[in-house]
Design goal:
This protein has three helices and two strands, in the order H-H-E-H-E. By secondary structure, it is an alpha+beta fold. A two-stranded antiparallel ribbon has the order 1-2. It is globular, with a radius of gyration of 16 Å. InterPro entries: Papain-like_cys_pep_sf (IPR038765), Peptidase_C1A (IPR013128), Peptidase_C1A_C (IPR000668).
């Protein structure tokens, strides 16, 4: 996000994943291997020949099959979550937080794998 302030993000203060993705598609970015996160505000310094972003899509909320298919076809995906106090104290295992609000999304994370189970 430190490079996408022109799209309305607040650098180290946060922002929207879609704004960062839009910037990446329009301007290209390097992989983390070649451009390590600096945790400070500034202008993006990169070699545009390193990476080409072809696009991004939004997966409908609640479509678990679409999420699983995306992970299987492209690898980890970005998802937005509600970062609750329970999550801040998370240690291990499956987190089942009944206070989680699917409309109060305030944190972006990588989703590497998922398994669905019915209660």
């Amino acid at each position: 996000m430190d490079f996408s302030w022109l799209q309305g993000n607040s650098n180290c203060g946060g922002g929207l994943m879609t704004s960062a993705f839009k910037y990446a598609k329009e301007n290209d970015i390097e992989s983390e291997k070649h451009y390590v996160y600096q945790e400070r505000e500034g202008f993006c310094k990169y070699d545009p020949s390193k990476t080409k972003i072809s696009g991004f899509i939004n997966i409908p909320k609640g479509d678990e099959e679409a999420h699983q298919n995306a992970i299987a076809s492209v690898g980890p995906i970005s998802v937005a979550i509600d970062c609750t106090n329970t999550l801040l104290r998370y240690d291990s295992g499956i987190l089942n937080d009944r206070t989680c609000d699917s409309y109060s999304l305030n944190h972006g994370v990588w989703l590497y794998d998922m398994e669905t189970k019915t209660a």
